[in-house]
Amino acid sequence: MRAPEDCNSMAELRAAIDTLDRSLVALLARRAGYIDRAIALKPAENLPARIEDRVAQVKAKVRAEAATQGLDADLVEGLWHQLIEWSIAREEVVLGADAPKETREI
């Protein structure tokens, strides 16, 4: 894929963005697979779907990575907030919202 500065037309730029978007969707699908695995593993460790310490940890890590990459940390945290909430809701379908309220990390 061409670097942004190597795109000489909007058509080339849009094609590169479309390719990148497909890669991002594939990565999100892969991440969802890990969420599904967490659903299988959490009951054996008596863990709930929502672990607030882990939520805070993930958000802090992506904020730091955004800063390292020169990307707006608030934007990235907002995107991950949506992703995390979707993931927790996905887990709660199986684990329930009233699962044990421990705060051990996954």
TrEMBL record:
Molecular-function annotations in GO: carbon-oxygen lyase activity; chorismate mutase activity
Limits of the Chorismate mutase domain: 4-95
InterPro entries in the cross-refs: Chorismate_II_sf, Chorismate_mutase-related, CM_dom_sf, CM_II_prokaryot, Isochorismate_pyruvate-lyase
Pfam families, A to Z: CM_2
GO biological process annotation, one example: chorismate metabolic process
Entry keyword Transmembrane helix: no
Keyword ATP-binding: no
Coiled coil location: none
Enzyme class: isomerase
SUPFAM superfamilies according to UniProt: Chorismate mutase II
Residues reported in the UniProt entry to bind substrate: 14, 31, 42, 91
UniProt entry keywords in alphabetical sequence: Isomerase
Enzyme nomenclature, EC number: 5.4.99.5
Protein name: chorismate mutase
Organism: Dinoroseobacter shibae (strain DSM 16493 / NCIMB 14021 / DFL 12)
